[in-house]
Specification:
about 40% helix; five-stranded mixed beta sheet; binds zinc ion; 2 domains; binds 5'-O-[(R)-(carboxyoxy)(hydroxy)phosphoryl]adenosine; 10 strands; Nucleotidyltransferase, domain 5; 10 helices; globular; alpha/beta
Length: about 325
């Protein structure tokens, strides 16, 4: 079995996964959403302190698996450096004390492997990664063979939902809140423009759309109503997804992927899922989705990647493990 640890942002999570059949034997996640909600976003120092309390508590529950462990896996990049180090320190300590090899896992590879939890891997495929930190189209050819073919030039898709929610005073994380309000809103009331519509670039941008939302809120002023908020959420969500779909269509037209997937926290958005499903149908691609429980950050996806890394003997010296907040190798 492999014990995996995730602490790249605001979720403390540990999982134990069996190597032979990929079964998830243990998984627990303690989210810090409530603690960060009043700030409208994650406060890194607070997140680190909460990881330092939560991770040892979860680890306590995994002791029965210790005799069966073959490796320790941990997210080492990208993420918040002060929170990554909490998981890395625990992983190093376990690796040394239990005399087990250490596997360093790139968080984004983890999201991609959320597709393969309790399943076999399926390559090649093209993946749309939409999370709080990233918006990318990635061509996945095999184990550790990833190529980013499009990325956001500024804010990410998930982050833009967080910022819209913050501007509307709705709390954090914004994605699920905005999606819920959007269900009762008029998506055509606000005519926000689709970013980079006339640009030939395969790239994303969300900062301009966020600004359009800010101006619409300012226009409504103090008299903003519940229905105004719902309409803003619906119109914003429509345009945020239209932007993704417009660029994906371009990609599909020239690349025709047979297998396509959406991963990352924001891939839980049902409106987006439906739009991408229609696109895949039109272009004859098979759509793959992670279980809703594994879209947002979790240690199970880190453990699933680690199984393939273990099979390939891709280990990391505990004295050399590094953590880079931004990297995607
Ligand atoms: O993957 P994740 O848990 O953390 C990162 O690696 O960033 O993604 C969290 C992000 C947050 O920005 C959150 O607002 C967004 O995913 N998110 C959503 C939805 N659920 C979560 N965005 C849009 N619609 C959702 N239903
Ligand atoms: Zn993530």
């Amino acid at each position: 079995m492999i014990l995996s640890i995730e602490s790249s942002c605001d979720d403390s999570s540990i999982a134990v996964t069996r190597i032979a059949d990929k079964e998830v034997c243990f998984h627990k996640k303690i989210s810090q959403e409530l603690e960060h909600s009043k700030y409208g976003g994650v406060v890194p120092e607070l997140a680190a302190r909460l990881h330092a309390q939560a991770l040892p508590k979860i680890l306590e529950e995994t002791k029965e698996y210790f005799p069966d462990l073959k490796a320790i896996a941990v997210t080492n990049e990208p993420g918040l450096s002060v929170t990554l180090v909490e998981g890395i320190t625990m992983a190093k300590a376990l690796s040394i004390s239990l005399d087990l090899p250490l596997i360093a896992v790139n968080h984004l590879y983890g999201h991609i492997y959320s597709l393969f939890i309790e399943k076999e891997t399926l390559f090649p495929q093209t993946v749309l990664l939409v999370s709080g930190g990233h918006t990318m189209i990635i061509e996945v050819r095999g184990f550790d063979q990833f190529e980013v073919v499009a990325r956001s030039m500024d804010d990410s898709f998930g982050e833009s939902f967080d910022k819209v929610a913050k501007m509307l005073g709705l709390g954090y994380p914004g994605g699920p809140i905005v999606e819920k309000l959007a269900q009762e809103g008029d998506e055509n009331r606000f005519d926000f423009t689709v970013p980079l519509y006339n640009s030939p670039k395969l790239a994303f941008s969300y900062s301009g759309l966020k600004n359009q939302v800010r101006l619409a809120i300012a226009d409504l002023g103090e008299s903003i109503t519940k229905q105004d908020r719902r309409d803003i959420c619906a119109s914003f969500q429509r345009v945020a997804c239209e932007h993704l779909l417009h660029k994906l269509k371009k990609y599909f037209q020239s690349n025709r992927p047979a297998h396509f997937a959406i991963v990352g926290g924001a891939s839980a958005n049902l409106y987006l899922r439906q739009k991408v499903e229609e696109l895949c149908k039109k272009y004859g691609a098979q759509l793959h989705l992670s279980d809703l429980a594994y879209c947002s950050d979790n240690a199970v996806m880190i453990g699933r990647y680690a199984i393939d890394a273990y099979t390939q003997k891709k280990f990391c010296d505990y004295r050399k493990i590094t953590s880079d907040p931004k990297v995607f190798r």
